[in-house]
Amino acid sequence: MAPVTVRTMCPMNCHPTLCGMLVDVDDGRLLGVRGDPDNPDSQGFLCIRGQASREIIGNPQRLLHPLIRAGRRDGEWRRASWDDALDLIVARMRNAGREAVGAWSGHGVFANNYGTRVASHLLRRFANLYGCQWWSPTMICWGLGAFGLGLTGLLETNTK
Would you give the DSSP letter of residue 65? Predict the structure, then answer.
């Protein structure tokens, strides 16, 4: 199979430019990442965090399955099935009540699908149906991140 280039968004998306990323893959193996020059916001720029994101794939410390804390004091974890982990989450959410639960969409969720944010919309809809609060990355750092990049001259401040 010949190497392919996949157009995506940076999973480290930490400012509102929705940085475009080109990922080179050969037979399921990551070859490299680079900025997407056709992305209208980032115009090929990919910061050091985005460039380092390739280290996540294949990292031996990367979690590929749920872990459940085995004890509060000893810091030990046990591997769990997805069903067990989700059952525990549901039980704890019910126990805490919706007023004590909040959903955080995170940067990677916001960066998917070239800004369509399907996963983020699903999480927001879940929070609305459950009746809990929902937070997005825009509340914490996007505005300040873009402002800082504008001050350093790396990117123009995005005013969209």
Answer: S
**Domain ranges, residue 86:** 63-96
Q: How many other CB atoms are there within 10 angstroms of residue 134's CB atom?
A: 17
pTM over 0.70: no
How far is the CA of 18 from the CAs of 3, 4, 70, 114, 145, in angstroms?
Answer: 25, 22, 38, 7, 12
Tell me the per-residue pLDDT of 27-74, one tens digit each, with 9 for 90 and over: 988 999 999 999 888 889 998 888 988 888 778 898 999 999 998 888
DSSP class of residue 129? H
Residue 69 identity (one-letter amino acid) = R
**What tokens were used for 153?**
């001259």
Q: Are 103 and 33 within one domain?
A: yes
Helices (H), the chain: 48-52, 82-96, 106-111, 118-130, 142-152
Answer whether 19's CB lies under 8 Å from 46's CB: yes
